[in-house]
Model the fold of this input.
Amino acid sequence: MSTSHSSKNGKRISRREAMRRGLYATAGLMAVDRLIPNALAVASAPAKTATKAKAKSVIQVFLWGGMSHNDTWDPKPDAGYEYMGEFAKAIPTNVDGIQLGELFPALAKQADKFSLIRGMTHRNNGHETAAYLMQTGHTPGERLAYPSIGAVFALFKKEYKGIIPPYVVMTQAQGRFSEEGFLGPKYKPFATGGDPNANRFEVEGVVARQITDDRQKNRRELLNKMNTMGKAMAASPQMTAAEESKKAAYDLILGKGKEVFDLSLEKEALRDKYGRNTFGQECLAARRLVEAGVPYVVINYPGGWDTHSNHFATMRRQCPNLDLGLATLLQDLKDRGLLETTIVWCTGEFGRGPKVDWQPPWNGGRNHYGNVFSVLVAGGGFKGGCVVGSSDSKGEEPKDRPVYPVDLLGSIYQLAGIDATAKLPHPMGLEAHILPSAAEGVKSNGLLTEIM
Amino acid sequence: MGFDVSVEAADAVKKALISAVVFLAVAGGAAAAERGPNVFEASGELAPDGQIDKIVFAKLASLKIEPALCSDAVFVRRAYLDIIGTVPTAKEAKEFIEDPDTKNKRRLLVDRLLEREEYADYWAMRWGDILRIKAEFPVNLWPNAAQAFHRWVRASLVENKPYDQFVNEMLTSSGSNFRVGPVNFYRAIQNRTPDGIAGAVALTFMGTRTDNWPTNKIEGMAVFFSQISYKPTSEWKEEHVFWNPLGSNVVTASSVPGKPSITSIAQPTNAVAQVFDPTEANLKPLVGVFPDGTKVKLSPNKDPREVFADWLVTPKNPWFTRCIVNRVWGWVMGRGIVHEPDDFRDDNPPSNPALLAYLEKELIAAKYDLKKLYRLILNSKTYQLSSMPKVTTPEAEANFASYSLRRLDAEVLIDAINKITGATDLYTSPIPEPFTYIPENKPAVAIADGSITSPFLTLFGRTARATGMENERNNKPVPSQWLHMLNSSHIYRKINEGAKMRAIIDSGRKPQEIIEELYLTILSRLPTADEVKNLEEYGTTQTVRQPPIMKNGKSVKQPDKTILVKRRDDWVDIAWALLNSAEFLYRH
Done:
């Protein structure tokens, strides 16, 4: 690893990065810690974009809980019942040589549009810590709580000026680790709440239950009329700021913003194709959000994949929805010419134990597993129809081309034109960068150049 | 609509006042209605009352600004919010407004509020921000220690502990973080190096940011904090803070078997950690340098923290008293005489030096009794000015020409909403496991630990208690906050289902009485005639089919009539509108 490390990473070390490291050394000699942020601010600001952005938006499907890899996108039909349980069968796809687990017939027809990373690894088996690792690239337990990739997009994709917040999550935030980290509340994901598969997608704060548009309008008029003090002091800067932000909120509640979440504007046949379930309709809503220019959309998979027990039945229930929703999303993005500018990536915080826990109390479950697992990536500059790396014959360890969180996230940042070495604004001016550098001892095997 | 119009309106009101026309603000006569009712300002002469007013009004006169006094209704709400962090009940507001003792009632209200139990909760919250009382990231006090620290702060406020003693205890205490509250001052610092501690002491008690100090100045001050040690005990996460003349503040032991020390000095930078050699450091006697440049040789027989406290905590110190009087002034008035209140430096002078000097002198004379300082400020006419800006120049703002408008703090806002509607919120901390939950009836201002929170508090800019800086709390409005207030199920449920709101809306009383009750409950005042009229007109129109009339033996169809009815939803909308008005959302 270490021998190939420098050569593979050689490209990543920009001149600025080298300067940064040089300054660390100097500052260390000066032994005046509090001067470091000031000294570095000169070197690393302003952040520039690394390359021309191919990806405008990202849809991240987060399989909270951790989805089994060998039952799904890294099938091991020869590993036997001990490992594969009920899912011994693998099916061919529309790309020669790529096989998927039997529960993914729809995705099998879209294999030319996505690539699979089968050597994903970080060896962390805790939900919170692994989720943090997969979405920040930083080692859990460092002094700073870093923002997740969605919050970083919200910060750096400044060209987006839409009325919908830049970082949207359906329907509940990933939670249990701080998505915005030290960037503060402004960069929190906008969690929609509600259910896009319901008659009306009640987006928290945007579409309220029991309040018709007419009532919204009446209320707004009433509020304007009764805002006695606000009107009396309309000239004050505080009131001006309040009115401006209230107007922006009403643009969402009564204006164009609300329509983006209105799935009834879609054709019934297409809605059916996505699947009439929460996940399917979330995929459809995600496409509409991307069409509206929203830079980062997370679908936090409803239900969860933490299948310690009752694994096979849960997979049979959940995988068809995942299969249909994701496959239709890829096809729909392609049909609308959005796939070239939209990255779709899908994985959990880790995989699941390749060997089935047949013993009580699990009775056919799979445990947390961070040694090796699979990630699906598509669009926005990622090539389709490829497999990156592999796991061993039983799906227990990476066999070749391990991919670490910084490699995956770094590739997404690069395609989106965000310089992953850029400095993040820490409230106390402390030194913090989007991704940790190799100099910080973080494991890396290079960007996914083979599919970029 | 805009600036000119309101200035004109204000001028017109002023003229009306000067010509001694009896201006019944609350009743809002026809003349007032044309310009919009002014229920916010009081009639009568505005004469300075005490030294604060003399100093401030003289400055305003030089700026040609003529201030106006706030009305009783504005005052009662303002005093409750500023002294105890909550709004008055409808009954409290009404009694105060109708109290005929106009000469004394404001002073008596201030006295009563300063003795209320909520005073300690509210001010412990403010101190918690400054002292960074938080169990988890980034200061990592740990839950028991955060509670102990908060308990000590709150108890100090209840007994009105003199401020000098309050600071002395924090600077010089030793002992367990679970048992001796004030030792946590030295633990609630992200960067627990002597430099980092000196920076926190300067920020907290001198109102000075050390970021731009010359290196030798901070290093000279850091010497006083170079012998603080942190030692774990056999109890999980317990830690002793003490003076260790032989060592540095580096601790290598750990209270967690097999884990790196919880108290190790983690540098939030990527610099190579410095190795501190205690033996070398103690070979030569330590020389500390006070921030005023005075050098002092430290005796091995006295805790250097005490030497520093002896220098700082005295009326003679140029920073100590000014810092706290300016903070208190800023907390109550919305803006420090030195602005921001924790940014004292030569090139950031006070807007009114005589005022700062006067408050300093008074607090020293009061032997650091903070309630006396509050009383002095709250009873001034300066504090009781109207919040309607006559002029919006920076000079007017910096010289306290009007009471400063600011959005209610996150905790105060949700407490007010819950108090008004009769609802509660859930406050939790997901780390460390097991999760912490706070009893349902506890208000948000009374939460000890900054790690215990709710999505509402985060959204509305509650401070993360990471830096202890005043500006870490963010009360600037953003659209997502409006989405929440205007249209979230969280707020909707409170208005629609909250027990107190139900008691008002479903009372079956006359519309005018319900309107009055809603105004007193939400805005702490009575509605104007215009407001009542507007709200009586708000409702749902219904088409009522009229029975045919028999005419000449034939039935003749009559046209339908539309009538206005008030459904329950209309009342919900009215309460909603008041809760979303600037008058509710802002201190004014």
